[in-house]
């Protein structure tokens, strides 16, 4: 067993919680021990929801294992129905609760509750959170929409003349990265095309809404990790086509408009002509030439990683030096994307592997999850968050979608600001010896009062080297201690802070390889020339 501090995904019952919490009129009864009851923390603290998640726990303790835990589950399920009166319920066990094999589905069936009860059997030790959300949504869709499916072999009736086309938005859940705002943005875009939204699910839907998913003409798969399974089933049973393009980025949004227009039988040109995004203009502006060929490393869920790599490479002008995902179920898609940028895909759920890869590649920007934000902070590299898992700061009160044309604007700001702030800090570092930038100096726009004289502490010539950084460098065959001379340290500080760590490491490695014990300014520039070849 591998112990870890962080995980990219929780167990699959957390995915089921995300579906239940996003929906209305649905209640989740979870057979779980004390310690697995953390739904409130996830949704009310991180997502800042204004109501508690609709989850009831059996909450058995160690002393209950010698008793009838099955009866404990039946009591909890019956009490949850009587208290909350949901339209439907889902039942299951947490990872620890599954070990006692009480069969929540069979127990709930024996209660004969007067509402649909859907069993979600989630293999806790083989699968994880996104799979659990996808499986839960699929099982709910089958159970609630299935009775309304047309007979096998029948054709889907044509839409009545003059009736606006309709679609379902599939995939948004609670605790999803910007799902709330993405739904709003895509709904507005579809309305501009003359397409109505029949049902948005799971988020915001009721069990009764799921029962009428088959009424729509087609489905929009917003997040394949969550919706692909249900969309494929709806395509088989109701003959509903579904979208393949995820509208993240300007180019992908334009492709998405054409795709949904073809499915709905409407003209996309008026919307395409009126559409605009500042990302396109900004990325071609003079200011953005500073961004060209910035090395970027991307990691997160597969959907956002593939979209981010395309935006970074084609729409902003970054150079993708690495990409990967923790979504093993979408490993094929990541491998195909990696081929486009001639990089090695990283498919792992071990954040230590991700950290090692970031350190190896020395990117100038990291795009990732909250894990990569911590990693980048330790390595001194700018970072922007593009994917769940995220923390409370990534659930902003403001409107901040990732999809559509407005989403492209948000993405440009989110990615570029860390780099531009780095440039500002670099300029401050460059001019730190200017008299106006010394501590205590009077700002020039406030008059001409004499600047406060700042006197550096005296340093004896024979300790100028000893008081600066000493580093031990280990190569494959030797371990060498290198010392930075004071003038070399001063010169190093002129390098932008976001690549300074890389410059320091490369210089120390170069000095070690050529047998130099003290790094001078000449060594620093020799190393720069060496690694530039």
TrEMBL record:
Keyword line: 4Fe-4S, ATP-binding, Bacteriochlorophyll biosynthesis, Chlorophyll biosynthesis, Iron, Iron-sulfur, Metal-binding, Nucleotide-binding, Oxidoreductase, Photosynthesis
Keyword 4Fe-4S attributed: yes
Record: active site: 287
GO biological process: light-independent bacteriochlorophyll biosynthetic process; photosynthesis, dark reaction
Nitrogenase/oxidoreductase component domain residues: 12-419
Annotated spans, Disordered: 144-165
EC number: 1.3.7.7
Any GO MF annotation of the entry: oxidoreductase activity, acting on iron-sulfur proteins as donors
Domain Light-independent protochlorophyllide reductase subunit B-like C-terminal: start-end pairs: 484-528
Ligand binding (substrate): 422-423
Catalytic activity: chlorophyllide a + oxidized 2[4Fe-4S]-[ferredoxin] + 2 ADP + 2 phosphate = protochlorophyllide a + reduced 2[4Fe-4S]-[ferredoxin] + 2 ATP + 2 H2O
Annotated residues for binding of [4Fe-4S] cluster: 36
Cofactor(s) the protein needs: [4Fe-4S] cluster
Pathway of action: Porphyrin-containing compound metabolism; bacteriochlorophyll biosynthesis (light-independent)
Family affiliation: Belongs to the ChlB/BchB/BchZ family.
Protein name: Light-independent protochlorophyllide reductase subunit B
């Amino acid at each position: 067993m591998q112990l870890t501090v962080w995980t990219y995904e929780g167990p699959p019952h957390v995915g089921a919680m995300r579906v239940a919490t996003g929906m209305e009129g649905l209640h989740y009864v979870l057979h779980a021990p004390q310690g697995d009851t953390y739904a409130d923390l996830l949704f009310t603290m991180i997502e800042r929801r204004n109501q508690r998640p609709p989850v009831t726990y059996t909450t058995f303790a160690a002393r209950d294992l010698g008793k009838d835990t099955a009866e404990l589950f039946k009591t909890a399920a019956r009490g949850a129905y009587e208290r909350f009166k949901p339209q439907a319920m889902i039942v299951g066990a947490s990872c620890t609760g599954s070990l006692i094999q009480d069969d929540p589905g069979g127990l709930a069936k024996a209660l004969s509750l007067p509402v649909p009860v859907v069993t979600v059997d989630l293999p806790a030790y083989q699968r994880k959170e996104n799979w659990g959300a996808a499986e839960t949504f699929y099982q709910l869709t089958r159970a609630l929409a299935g009775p309304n499916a047309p007979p096998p072999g029948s054709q889907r009736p044509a839409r009545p003349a003059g009736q606006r086309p309709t679609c379902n938005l599939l995939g948004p859940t609670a605790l999803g990265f910007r799902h709330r705002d993405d739904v709003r943005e895509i709904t507005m875009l579809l309305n501009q095309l003359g397409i109505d939204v029949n049902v948005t699910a799971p988020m915001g839907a009721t069990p009764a809404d799921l029962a009428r998913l088959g009424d729509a003409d087609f489905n929009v798969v917003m997040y394949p990790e969550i919706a692909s399974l249900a969309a494929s089933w709806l395509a088989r049973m109701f003959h509903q086509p579904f979208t393949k393009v995820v509208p993240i980025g300007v180019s992908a949004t334009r492709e998405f408009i054409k795709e949904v227009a073809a499915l709905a039988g409407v003209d996309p040109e008026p919307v395409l002509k009126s559409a605009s995004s500042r990302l396109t203009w900004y990325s071609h502006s003079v200011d953005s030439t500073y961004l060209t060929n910035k090395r970027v490393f991307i990691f997160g869920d597969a959907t956002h990683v593939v979209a981010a790599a395309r935006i970074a490479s084609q729409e902003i002008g970054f150079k993708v030096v690495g990409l990967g995902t923790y979504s093993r179920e979408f490993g094929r898609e990541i491998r195909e994307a990696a081929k486009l940028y001639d990089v090695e895909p990283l498919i792992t759920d071990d954040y230590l592997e991700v950290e090692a890869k970031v350190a190896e590649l020395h990117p100038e920007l990291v795009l990732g999850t909250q894990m990569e934000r911590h990693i980048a902070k330790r390595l001194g590299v700018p970072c922007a968050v593009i994917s769940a898992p995220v923390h409370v700061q990534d659930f902003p009160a403001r409107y901040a979608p990732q999809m559509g044309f407005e989403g492209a604007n948000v993405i440009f700001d989110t990615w570029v600001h860390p780099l531009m702030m780095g440039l500002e800090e670099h300029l401050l570092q460059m001019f730190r010896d200017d008299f106006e930038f010394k501590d205590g100096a009077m700002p020039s726009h406030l008059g001409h009062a004499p600047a406060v004289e700042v006197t550096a502490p005296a340093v004896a010539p024979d300790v100028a080297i000893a008081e600066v950084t000493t580093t031990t460098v280990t190569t494959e065959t030797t371990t060498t201690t290198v010392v930075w001379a004071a003038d070399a340290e001063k010169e190093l500080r002129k390098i932008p802070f976001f690549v300074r760590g890389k410059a320091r490491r490369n210089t120390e490695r170069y000095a070690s390889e050529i047998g130099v014990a003290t790094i001078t300014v000449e060594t620093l520039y020799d190393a720069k020339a060496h690694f530039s070849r």
